[in-house]
Amino acid sequence: MNRARTQTFRMLLAVCLLAVIFPWTNAAAQDETPSPTPIPDEQQARPDLTLQKDQIPAQTQEQLPADDQSYDKAPINLATGQLLKVTSSPLRWGHFSVLSFNAVEVYDSNFLFRKDNPLSAQAGAVQGLIVYAIKTGRMNFSLQYRPQIWVSSESTQFDYASHLLDMHASRRISPQWSVNFSDRYQWAADRGNLDQIGLTSDYASNNTNQNPFLVGGRRLISNIADFSVAHNFTAHNSLEFSARHQYISLSALPIGSTVPDPVATENTQQIIGGQLGWSYQWSRNNSLGIHYAYDREFFQDFTSSAQFHSVLFGFSRRLTSTLVLQVNGGPTLMVPDKAPGAVQAPDIRQTYQGSAALFKTFHRAGFTLSYSRSNDFTGQVSDGLNDRFGATYSERFFRRLDLVVGGAYVRQNYLSGAHLLGKTGWTEIGYRLSPSWSFYTTYSYLTQGGGPTLYGPRHLVTSGIRWSWDAGRNEGFGR
User: Fold this and answer.
1) What is the pLDDT, as a whole number, of residue 205?
2) CATH of domain 2-28+42-476
3) What's the pTM?
4) Whose CA is closest to 142, among 75, 242, 73?
5) Domain map (residue ranges) of the chain
């Protein structure tokens, strides 16, 4: 049986590699087409070319023309964690394009997260990213689909598939009014995203993407929908209303797991919320604003709930040509509902929500520090906020070797009971065979604990080959 599954994986890997190798000649030719005007090697290797406009003096920046796509909130690339700027590739059929493909082998030292007697597992996966996109002068639409197929020696260790689907639509109704809608659905098998690191940074757009890494060995179903309407009073002043709905469902602990989950009774969560905010932007990467946000959380099929009222103040400031600071935060009132059968409602709690990020770019490198306190999903359902710290550093050596190192810490708070603590660290090394092809290896370390409950440490090692088509890939420092 094990031999048959191994052969199945090898056949899948061979078929998928052949599918992308045949058109590789055209893709490589397009990648390596010489520029009509020779460009110095040093300039070609710069990963932060998008900073050139930002290095223009402030008075010149004010005169830059407005971006025709400024009404569009670009979605996140499901494969890289950075903004989706490229939606077509040489592998395309009409509006459909294959943006990336990779085959990966994974080793998990402790797939049940046991403190004692850990069990290891190995598996192979084939992943891809398919995009359907339509762009016009006043409308953008994109649909990303990232399937993932696992093959392992024992079916009890890894499930065979997980799916990630993202839909994004934006429309400029008039020069002053625009609307944006996005919906992301994820079905992740047990330990279905083992190659995902905790924090990714996009230095071209000064954006961070935090991935949930608190692991309980559960199957995840998630759907997050956002809708926003924006009105531009002037080129600098804007008002925006947004609404969101988030649904999270976690399965029971897998068979064979001996680790007690401190929140095993919390399996489902829904968040319905809205936000109204004003912002003023006087130049690129320099803005300030104020927002009021309301969230209503429901747990376990609406048997309990909590409300959050927040007033958030924020600003973004380019301190130097290579240093950007973003800060956002303010007071929050947490209003828990009275539990069924309870005589008295819980006390209203005063706390805060916020985030901060510092982006620093060098000649061929980038460094990010981030902090957040919010009710964003960290991997476990909770009726409280979470505090999260993260740092990542990326650098390119010799135009072909990419290095990424980072770490993150999260404290998932609960209104009652022990908090859950999690730590992770990672490093990734990638070697580019061409602008589109690369080999990579990633090592990740995970550990969790909460009160008297201790989880065993977990070591993950992934290695594989990746084909990725992204004209702006140099701006992200790897991945």
Assistant:
1) 84
2) 2.40.160
3) 0.79
4) 75
5) 2-28+42-476
